Amino acid sequence: MHKKISVLVFMFITPFVFSQIGGESTYQFLNLVSSPRQAALGGKVITFYDYDVSQALFNPASINVEMDSQLALNYSSYLGGIGYGTAAYAYTVDRRTQTFHGGVTYINYGNFDGYDESGNSTGSFSGSEAALSLGYAFNIPWTDIYLGTNIKFITSKLEQYSSFGMALDIGAIYINDKIGFQAAIAIRNLGTQITTYAGQNESLPLELDFGMSQQLENVPIRWHMTIENIQTWNIAKPNPARVVTDLNGNQTDEKISFFNNAFRHLVLGAELFPDKGFNIRLGYNFRRAEELKILEQRNFSGLSFGVGLKMNKIRFSYSHARYSSASNTSFFGLNIDLQ
After folding, report:
1. How many angstroms separate the first and last alpha carbons of the chain?
2. Which residue has the higher pLDDT, 112 or 306?
3. What is the pTM of this model?
4. What does the alpha-carbon distance between residue 33 and residue 75 come to, in Å, rounded to a whole number?
């Protein structure tokens, strides 16, 4: 059965493997963080392998029996008044077939005032998008490697236009319990639009991420490192606001060095007391920090932090991410054990 699944997955993804980056494809909400825990650690952690049922929305290889009967509800009042959230649940049928996972990602862009080309009001309109995810993972026999797949059904409505699409996430994770080390890779959003907004087919926001994490032996810290958007090396774009004009009126675009571009792929995070009832989380997203920084002003873009608190069968999580001096976002989440 596993061989058949692998063949079908390969046949499905082959036509869609090409470089993409944010802003050049549709359904961009698919790459938003899935939980406050992930947001606090920089936004792109793919190496969790525990109770956190929200993690499977980002890396399906993390689906495991510890997620059995776990329900997660997460919400963020996102940038510009956008409402954004996720929900996830996992159920273990038995130890042989392991665990199945289901999740929803939803974003509401709010209400807007519409006008025609002459400036006449056409009334208000709204926009929203959602994705339903179904996932499953399994262990490769006699190894410490786990593979998982999500299939996603995507719907989008923007004013009078609507679209429907389908996508796959494919993930793998290696676990070494002896040294508390984990490494993972995730290929996200391999798919296509089934129906388009206005007759033009757009690509999905394909993303390839690699991550590592380790629980330190004598210190209650687990560090996380993620290399994001591996499918596209040059993710840095010159900022038009940083054009330099000399005394003669000549303009010079922002120069982006090799190392500057390389570091924009990097996300770092750390959890203090990761296995306790109360833990603290810190993260730094180099790309966000570089793209949103204000020259000659310290605004701490790219930083994020959060806390986790366990009370009986409920875990509460909160994160705060710094984007710029004018924009920050908070993320709230509950993980409920229904057993």
Report:
1. 30
2. 306
3. 0.86
4. 11
Q: How confident is the model at residue 115 (pLDDT cuts 50, 70, 90)?
A: confident
State the Cα–Cα distance between residues 239 and 241, nearest whole angstrom: 5
What b/e string do you get for 218-242 counting C-beta neighbours within 10 Å, with b at 16 or more? eeeebbbbbbbbebbeebbeeeeee
Q: What is the pLDDT of residue 298?
A: 66
pLDDT of 315: 96
Query: DSSP secondary-structure letter at 218?
Result: S
Contact (CB, 8 A) for 166 and 191: yes
Its sign, for the CA torsion 32, 37, 38, 42, is positive
pLDDT band of 216, cuts 50, 70, 90: very high
Residue 195, CA distances (Å) to 95, 192, 271 in order = 39, 9, 42
The residues that bridge with 190 in the sheet, in sequence order, are 168
pLDDT at 243 over 80: no
CB 162 within 8 Å of CB 132: no
Burial 115-142 (b: 16+ CB within 10 A, else e): eeeeeeeeeeeebbbebebebbbbeeee
- Angle (nearest 5°) at CA 103 between 102 and 106: 160
Distance (Å, rounded) from C-alpha 44 to C-alpha 208?
A: 11
Cβ contact 53:64 at 8 Å: no
**What are the tokens at 47?**
């190496």
Please state, in angstroms and rounded to a whole number, the distance separating the CA atoms of residues 255 and 239.
Answer: 9
Residue 43 DSSP class: S
Query: By CB neighbour count within 10 A (0-12 exposed, 13-18 middle, 19+ buried), where does 152 fall?
Result: buried
